[in-house]
Design goal:
Cytidine Deaminase, domain 2; alpha/beta; 7 helices; 2 domains; single chain; 17 strands; sulfurtransferase activity; five-stranded mixed sheet; about 25% helix; Sulfur carrier protein FdhD; globular
């Protein structure tokens, strides 16, 4: 069992603003603060985050960057906002962190993201469920649930959201919903929550408000999730990765409109309603 703090930071701040007619009023903006991750006292990276689920964010970051072999090797994650740090202590981590962090790829993350190690090093080791399917009604329910859910974005803007749903055939059940200043933070937080719960991804659907780049596709695949939905679009390399992994990508999801970019063989629905890229 990983020992975790519960260092949730204030997510929204009130500020005085002026509108186009010169009227002063109270507005809301999301929080943003640095969090430097230390793995066994080695400084790894500083993430800019709202701080809504910092322990899950750190755990998911380590998972998706492949800097720890399993959640079982982590003894504790201590987040301290006074020092803006997250100290991770492991028991017997078998990953060569020095070698892994010697190579960096600057990604298309909000601002500039970083991936350690070769982006494609382990892609051939990922095997998604061959039998997983997704129903059109479940797609509609996911999109509608996100549209109607109360959120920081609706109150303050300036954030991305990611969510995972249980794929229940003709409907979908929300399991986790995370908002952060960057979509990569949100997906990493969800990865951390799934890892803590030992939740496999075979019967899950992943949704993001951000675009599906190669890094987002690889993170989804590492989580074992065969279905990725986006309110935004898909990049060429993201599509290439999805085709290689037999992963189904939905983009431009809004209302009852969507585009299926890959993995159409997994889709169950009224084919007359299918929009394909």
């Amino acid at each position: 069992m990983v020992k975790l703090t519960n260092a949730v930071a204030p997510l929204i701040h009130e500020v005085e603003v002026m509108d186009e007619q010169g009227r002063k009023k109270i507005g809301h903006i999301p929080g943003e603060r640095p969090l430097t991750i230390y793995l066994d006292k080695k400084e790894l990276v500083t993430l800019m985050t709202m701080g809504g689920a910092p322990e899950a964010l750190v755990l998911g970051y380590l998972r998706n960057q492949r800097l720890v072999s399993s959640v079982g090797v982590i003894e504790s994650i201590q987040v301290d906002w006074e020092t803006e740090s997250a100290a991770v202590k492991t028991k017997c981590n078998t990953v060569d962190v020095e070698q892994k962090t010697s190579r960096r790829v600057v990604t298309t993350g909000c601002g500039q993201g970083t991936v350690f190690g070769g982006l494609l090093d382990d892609i051939d080791k990922i095997h998604l469920s061959e039998t997983a399917q997704i129903n059109q009604l479940a797609v509609y329910e996911v999109v509608d649930h996100i549209r109607t859910k109360p959120s920081i974005y609706k109150q303050a803007g300036s954030v991305h959201a990611c969510a995972v749903f249980k794929n229940c055939g003709d409907h979908a059940e929300l399991l986790h919903f995370v908002e952060d200043v960057g979509r990569h933070n949100a997906v990493d937080s969800i990865a951390g929550l799934m890892w803590l719960e030992d939740q496999p991804g075979d019967d899950l659907i992943f949704y993001t408000t951000g675009r599906l780049t190669s890094e987002m596709v690889i993170k989804g695949a590492q989580m074992g999730i065969p279905f990725l939905l986006s309110r935004s679009g898909v990049t060429a390399m993201g599509l290439e990765m999805a085709n290689k992994l037999n992963l189904t990508l939905f983009g431009r999801c809004s209302g009852q409109h969507y585009l299926i970019y890959s993995g159409i063989n997994r889709f169950i629905g009224n084919t007359s309603d299918v929009h394909t890229a």
